[in-house]
Amino acid sequence: MSVSTCMSGVRQHFRSHFIGLVIFFALTAVLGGCTLLQNVKKKPADEELARSFEQNKALLDEVKDDALRVAPSEYGQAVALVGEMKHYVSKSEYDGAWRVEKKVQPLINKIQSTIKKYPASTWASDPKQYTAKMAMMITEVEGLKTINRLQARRLESTEAARDDAIKEVVRIRSRIQGMASSTEAAAMFAEARVIIDRMVDDAYNDEARGDLSLARKFMKDGMDELNGNNPGGAAYLFDLVSATYENFRGMEPRSLTISVRSAVLRSAPSKSSARKGLLSYGVIVEGLERKGPWFSVRTSEGIEGWLHESIVR
After folding, report:
1. Contact status, residue 137 vs residue 97, Cβ threshold 8 Å
2. Which residue from 32, 137, 219, 295 puts its CA 20 to 30 A from 83's CA?
3. Domain-by-domain residue ranges, the chain?
């Protein structure tokens, strides 16, 4: 190999490496410029977010007393969201902070609107009267909570006593021969199954569904006793299904009560269907048909429409 050929190869080698280095530094400069541009664009947005956070916090501090008087729920939500916003900002997670900020502003607007609608003068001109009224309301709420807890315990105790009594009767019947034959118990089982099918079709309201649940329990326990060679106990439990059904029929199982402040009556079983009217809390309607989570109903004025199961009981 000649010297000129060797030198030519060396020059070509360095030239290729040099071109590669030039391309590398050019790309680095371009990417760095893009990052810098992004930071320049982002900075004003971040500053705007910080200003929005401070403004929201200041507004909530300013309206705190009035908000707790007339819009405590909305105020609590707004405070929680501002705290969440602060968390995102501290972590430099600005996208999350912006999402929260969009929820805060409507809440603050609603709080301010409610305060204007119900000024302090409409409650009490004397702060002492206002404080006394609030204390009385808190006491009433706590009292209602206590009553509900006592009623729940009393109901649990009554149900436990009922179940114990039923178990005792079933045990006694298992010892007494001739209370019912297996054939008779099987016939009562078939009748109980028909009854439960009817209850399923008609159990629209909460009370009716409670009776249906109880009847199903008696049915299951009766089947267990029948399979355990205790036809007398099984017959007794299947008879309890019939007794539960008699109570079920007397309670108007298809009547429904509106359980929200304002319920939308719709023209079809869909939230996107047209509105036919509004029904207020406590209004009772007649159930006509069930389709998935929707009830076809008729009001006392004869207006028919559909209500979602989440707004009735």
Report:
1. no
2. 137
3. 38-123, 141-249, 255-311
CATH class in words for 255-311: mainly beta
| The two three-digit tokens of residue 4, written as one number | 């000129």
Segment 172-178 shows an average pLDDT of 58
Element (H, E) at 220: helix 206-227
d(CA 31, CA 18): 20
| Contact in structure between 78 and 107 (CB atoms under 8 Å) | yes
Tokens standing for residue 178: 């001739």
Phi, psi of 166 (to 5 degrees): -65, -45
pLDDT confidence band for 110 (50 / 70 / 90): confident
- Give the tens place of pLDDT for each residue, 245-266: 888 888 788 899 998 888 889 9
As a whole number of angstroms, the distance between CA 118 and CA 71 comes to 10
Considering the chain, what is the average pLDDT of its residues? 75
Cα torsion for 204, 207, 209, 214, to the nearest 10°?
Answer: -160
